[in-house]
Structure formats: C-alpha cells, structure tokens
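ARCHIVE CARD
CATEGORY: sequence design from structure
SOURCE FIELD: tokenized fold
FIELD CONTENT:
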C-alpha cells in the first residue's frame, strides 16, 4: 500500500540547502553585483505601489492646507516675510565674502569652488526596519540621479544615494551603522570620520586621540576627502568629549544638524569636477608669476672679422671673455692686424 504523503528529503538537509543558497546569493550580490539589473527592474516595478501607498498622506496634507483659517495664513505669511528679510541681509554679506574668497584663491593659485547643480526631492517612504536608516525619494534615473550622490537639506548633510530606479531612489542616512563620512572641525581643521551609530540623533567619531583639541559645541563640516561630498557642508555638532585613563582614544559623540526623524524635502547635489576649475585657477596664477619674473638683458657679442679670427691663437679662441679695462683698450687700438693674403703654392690648381 502506497503512503498518502511521499517521503522526501530530510528537513535538516532542506534547511542546509536553503541556507547555503542564500549565502551564495548574498555573496554574489555583495561582491560581484550580479543582481544590480534585477534590483533596478524590481524598483521600477514597485514604484507605482509606492506612489499609491503615499497618496493618502498627500491627500491628507492637501485637505489640511485647504482648511486653514485666514488668521493662520496671515501669521504664517508675516513670519515668512521676516525670515526672507533676514536671509536677504545675510545674502548681501555672503556675496561679498564669496567674491573676496574667490580673489584670494586666484592670488594663491588655489582652485575656485564652483556652485554645484541642485534638485529638490520629496520623501515617499521610510524603511520600517529599525536597524536600517533609509528613505525612498521621488527622483530616479530619469532625473540624472546616480549611486553615491550626496543628499542634504536646509540644515545639513542627510546621507547619500545607494540605489537608483527609473523614477525613485533609496537614500542611506548618515545615522545608519554602515555609513561613515569624512569631516573636519570648523574651529581648528582637525580631520575625523563621523560614523553612524544606529540612532537617529547620534554620530560617533572613532580613533580620536585623547589629546585632541576638541570641545563640546564644535561644528563638524564635510572635509571633501574622498571626492563624494563637497567641502564645507555642515554635518553635526560635538555633544560629548570624554576619555578614560589607560585608553589611548577618547569617546566623542555628535548630534546631526539635520532632523533625520522629520525629513520631508531633500536636496540632491551634483558636485562640479575639480579639474576644470583647478586648471582655470592655476593657469592665470602661473602666467602672472612668469610675467613678474625679472628679465636679465644679454649683451651682444662683439663681431669678429675673418682676418682677426684667422690670426687669433687657438687658446685665445676657447678662453672666456675678459673684462675690458683702459689698458686693454689701448693695446687693442695700437695692435691692429693687417689683412693677410695667402699666396698660391706652385702646382696647386686654381
């Protein structure tokens, strides 16, 4: 009699095959990027579902904006006008400082930093995994977004793009455990690496010597090393600097300036290549330096007649020129050599 349920492979063997296959696929994707095309295709397929899931939030935001009272709108308009007035006054000063900085860089032969291209993006979804700090934005390959692109907002650095679809992209936040960012202290230019801790409002600076000149409240900005993030964008402020006796490194914590738990609009950056700006800045400086070099006039060599050259000894021809004195001038004027005629030798053909 045949059993109803056939006996197959053992459960432990099936589990071993599944685990082995999973590890193989993970290594193949992480090391050799074999599934990048498939991931791009899946992101493009899932994009309509993301927009559909985000539509209730957009509808609720639109309804709440429509039912605002007139007094609230007037109050908000007044605050925005004051903020715009302050920003315009700061812009006047920043324009003057930018021009002065550009002139000083040209004098020093340093490359002038060009403004980068920017694009506004809106957040569509936030990763629900508490151990993964990622968000999905509404810009993708059609908008020129690329992997590794820096992302900021109006307060500071937010993160970078890690995967790109046709119409959406995924951004890794600076607070994620797998993210690290080269920074420098604004006060004294000490360089460090700001790493994520898995907490949205905390970063850590590793391998900082206990004798480093760091203080609570120091501003950390991007250093530009690595070529991924442009130089000078604010990242975080140091909130704790402590060390224990017997340990070579201090414990340094920082708070991100961007509110990573309340993100809505982001700014994508396209950093300008540094080679062209560097060449444009160095070439004028080099030409100006060459133009200011002193030029030493070279004296004309005295003309030597063929007769004098023939009568001059060989040792005198190779000797260095002698400075003329009054006595030498007299001897030169008194000893004039008459032209010498060469008589033909008998038997020589003319």
């Amino acid at each position: 009699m045949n059993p109803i349920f056939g006996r197959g492979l053992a459960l432990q063997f099936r589990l071993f095959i599944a685990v082995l296959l999973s590890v193989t696929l993970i290594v193949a994707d992480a090391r050799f990027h074999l599934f990048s095309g498939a991931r791009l295709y899946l992101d493009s397929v899932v994009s309509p579902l993301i927009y559909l899931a985000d539509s209730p939030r957009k509808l609720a935001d639109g309804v709440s904006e429509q039912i605002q009272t007139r007094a609230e709108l007037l109050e908000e308009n007044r605050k925005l006008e004051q903020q715009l007035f302050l920003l315009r006054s700061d812009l006047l000063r920043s324009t003057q400082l930018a021009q002065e900085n550009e002139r000083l860089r040209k004098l020093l032969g340093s490359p002038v930093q060009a403004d980068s291209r920017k694009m506004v993006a809106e957040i569509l979804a936030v990763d629900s995994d508490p151990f993964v700090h990622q968000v999905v934005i509404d810009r993708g390959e059609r908008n020129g977004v690329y992997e590794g692109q820096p992302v900021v907002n109006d307060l500071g650095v937010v993160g970078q793009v890690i995967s790109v679809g046709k119409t959406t992209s995924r951004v890794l936040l600076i607070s994620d455990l797998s993210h690290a960012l080269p920074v420098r202290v604004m006060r004294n230019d000490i360089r460090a690496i700001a790493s994520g801790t898995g907490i949205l409002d905390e970063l850590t600076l590793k391998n900082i010597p206990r004798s480093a000149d760091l203080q609570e409240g120091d501003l950390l900005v991007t250093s530009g090393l690595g070529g991924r993030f442009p130089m000078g964008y604010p990242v975080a402020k140091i909130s704790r600097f402590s060390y224990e006796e017997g340990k070579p490194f201090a414990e340094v914590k920082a708070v991100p300036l961007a509110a990573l738990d309340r993100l809505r609009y982001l700014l994508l950056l396209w950093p300008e290549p540094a080679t062209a700006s560097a060449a444009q800045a160095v070439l004028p400086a080099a030409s100006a330096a060459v133009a200011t070099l002193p030029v030493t006039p070279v004296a004309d060599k005295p003309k030597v007649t063929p007769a004098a050259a023939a009568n001059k000894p060989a040792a005198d021809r190779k000797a260095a020129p002698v400075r003329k004195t009054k006595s030498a001038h007299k001897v030169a004027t008194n000893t004039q050599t008459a032209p010498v005629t060469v008589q033909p030798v008998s038997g020589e053909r003319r």
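CARD ANNOTATION: DSSP finds seven helices and twelve strands in the chain. Residues 274-301, 306-310, 312-350 have pLDDT under 50 and may be disordered.
SHELF: design records, drawer C
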